[in-house]
Each structure stands twice: as structure tokens, then as C-alpha cells.
Amino acid sequence: MSEAADQIFAMLKQSAQSGAPLYLQLRKSIEDAVNRGLIGPGDALPSERDIASKADISRVTVRKAVQDLVKGGILVQRHGSGTFVAPRMERVEQSLSRLTSFTEDMARRGMAVRSAWLDRGLYAPSPDEMMVLGLSSNELVARVARLRIANDTPLAIERAALSASVLPDPAGIGSSLYAALETTGLRPVRAVQRISAANLGGDDARLLEVPSGIAGLHIERISYLASGKVIEFTRSIYRGDAYDFVAELRLSGPGEEGRP
Ligand code: GLP
Question: Are residues 118 and 170 in the same domain?
Fold first, then answer.
């Protein structure tokens, strides 16, 4: 029997007097063992059968407790290899006053960045893209959709749209969209960003490796060239447990109230 199992059973014995339903006692024991660092991120949980036989409870009860903890993001299940304590997210603090790229933000923190391509190509624009990018129906839009990954943790899904005249070869951007725009003198100098709450579900949750229903952030960035022309329209989904957005606020001067 593993050390992790011993830690969990020690916690379970302590809560046995509480009179709470068994699955809740077990759930709490596992949670306490994780919170106290007795079992750490990445540690394997003993098998359902081991827990059930050692604690003398049914496998159904064990499954119910484990499923609850998976839903809450405390444990993760990997098909074929078992159940593990979820990796702890190091939160990224992101300033809202600088126009930087994902690659720059992560590199500044010493994190290794990579992306997985979800889509890249030229398409007929959607009504939203036509409106924001100022495209007509016979022009094309370049779409670049990526899962952005830092230190092997998926942090965001970013779907960028640009006029095809700005980015005729979306497959050729390499690892950074802003670096590619910089080479053609089209890197944005200003952006307006809108952040709203979103519950992550379906494919988004799966890609970001979080339980379905967990909190996330929907971020829309419209960025501009110095001329005022819109260059980028990006809609992103960020993990809510990974980001703190920080803005510095100043008392507005006379006559500035309400100015964006
Ligand atoms: C940020 C922004 C996106 C922008 C991206 C460019 O993440 N939210 O709007 O497209 O940076 O990042 P990179 O240059 O690494 O591709």
C-alpha cells in the first residue's frame, strides 16, 4: 500500500466520528490530505479497489467521492493510467496597461511557451469579423486559432482574425503572431480589451484540461495600428484559475470623468 493511501486512511480515521455520510468523509479525507500537502500535485491516488478494501467501504462510495473531487478540480483522471492529485496552478499576474503578446508575457516570466494549432487558414468572413475588421463580403479573413501552453500547462484558447491582406499566409506566422506582424511593420500599437466571466464547457474545458463548468474568462481584444486601422480581432478563453489581471487606477483629472 502506498504512502498516499496511508495518509488518506489516517485522515479518514480522524473524521470517522463525524457521522457524515461515508462518501463525504472520504472526500474530505482526500481533500485534507491534499491541502495539508500530505499528498502532492501529480501523486497517484490509490486504486478504487485498494481504497474500498482498506477503508472497508463499497467501491460505489469511493467512486462517488473521487468523482466529486474530479469535478472540483482537486483530482484529475487520465484514461488508462489512473487518478492523480491535480497539478497546482501558479497564477500568472498580467498587467492590463501594456500591449504585449502571449509569447512575450510568458518569456518575461521564464516560462517555456508553445502552441497547438486548432485552425489556420483563409475563410469568408463572419458578420462580426466583417464589422470589426472593416471587410466586405468578397474579401477574405485570416484565422489563427491556437491553444496556448506555458510550462506544459494549457492556459488559453486564442482565436485571432485579421484581414487576409494583412496576413495572407496564416500558416506562416511561426510561434508568435505579433512577431510576424512586426516583420511587416503591422504590429498593433493600441488595443481595447473586454473581459467577461464564462463557464468553461465541452471542447474548451477539454482542451484546457479543466473540469467542465469551471470558471474561466472570455477576453476579446481589438487592436489598432497607429493610423487607427483595426488590425486584429481576437477572442480568447482563459483558465480562471491561472490568471490575475491587474490594472493600475488613477484619480481622474478635472473634466476627465467617464473618458475611456
Ligand atoms: C495575447 C493577446 C492576443 C494576441 C496574442 C499574440 O495573448 N490576447 O490578442 O493575438 O497575445 O501572441 P503571440 O505573438 O505570442 O502569438
Answer: yes
| 229, 223 Cβ separation under 8 angstroms | no
Final residue belonging to a domain, choices 29, 57, 85: 85
Q: Which domain holds residue 157?
A: 92-246
Please give the C-alpha separations between residue 236 and each of 180, 240, 242, in angstroms, as whole numbers: 19, 12, 14
Q: Is 102 in the pocket of ligand 1 (CB under 6 A)?
A: yes
**Residue-wise pLDDT tens digits, 134-158:** 999 999 999 999 999 998 889 999 9
Pairing of the two strands 92-95 and 243-246 = parallel
Instruction: State what percent of residues in the chain have pLDDT above 90.
Output: 50
Cβ atoms < 10 Å from Cβ of 198: 15
Per-residue confidence band for 195, with pLDDT thresholds at 50, 70 and 90:
very high
The response to whether residue 103 sits with its C-beta less than 6 Å from ligand 1 reads: yes
Give residue 146's pLDDT.
98
The atom number, within ligand 1, closest to the CA of 221 reads: 9
